[in-house]
Amino acid sequence: MTPRPRWFPAVLGGTLLLAASSCSKDEQQAKPSTTAPSTEITSEQKKGEPLSLLFALQQQDIAADGSRVLQVHGTYKGAEVGLVVALGADWESVAPDPKSKFAFHTGKVEYRTAGEPSNVLLRAIDELYGTGLAPAAMRASVKFAATSLQGDPDDLAKGELRLKLSLESSGPAQEAELYTNSDLTRHQLRITEKDQSYRKAIVKALAKE
């Protein structure tokens, strides 16, 4: 047997250590991140389509009353924006066709301020909508009546949830609708306008008096 040089064990040990380190890095890269990256909220806006704002869904909590609280964040022209979206605890299922597996769910959704990021978001919406209302800050909360168009509000793990939100108001002048879609698997929440005629009513409803 050919004698091994004295440096052989050291080189072999270093090679094995390097290989182990490489495997460890590969495993870390293969492991999906649990933290949603921040995003420019207009990054997926397409010309000629209704205004759609995309947020990173960073945290989901279950409140004491059973409601689901979603914290979403993003950026607009480099500034941090954010919002809290609370899905009510009580949802009623309505099956329009007994033979169909699909059922509408009706309930409540609340937009809540996340502080200064929400104030910046509201001003961004005012700018994007072209409403020129110059709101100073977002109010503490705004409540909507919600109807699901896809998914189950009681089980977000089933897949994407698409909701149509209707502003609860006292008169026709303040009526407004918009869409709010959440996807836990993609860590995303999207707010899309339904009709441009609702723009002023939405900004007024969100603005602090």
Question: Which key features would you list for this structure?
Answer:
2 domains; 34% strand; alpha+beta; 209 residues; 3 helices
Helix content: 10-25%
Assembly category? single chain
Counting H and I runs of at least 4 residues, what is the number of helices? 3
Q: In terms of structural class, how would the helical and strand content be classed?
A: alpha+beta
Average pLDDT, all residues: 84
The main β sheet shows up as: 8 strands, antiparallel, barrel
Outline: globular
Domain count, please report it.
Answer: 2
What is the CA–CA distance across the termini? 90 Å
What is the total tally of β strands? 9
Order of helices and strands: HEEEEEHEEEEH
**Strand coverage percent:** 25-35%
List the helices and strands and how they pair.
Elements: H1 8-30, E1 52-62, E2 68-76, E3 79-87, E4 92-94, E5 104-112, H2 116-129, E6 141-150, E7 161-167, E8 177-183, E9 188-193, H3 199-206
Antiparallel strand pairs: 1-2, 1-9, 2-3, 3-5, 4-5, 5-6, 6-7, 7-8, 8-9
Helix pairs in contact: 2-3
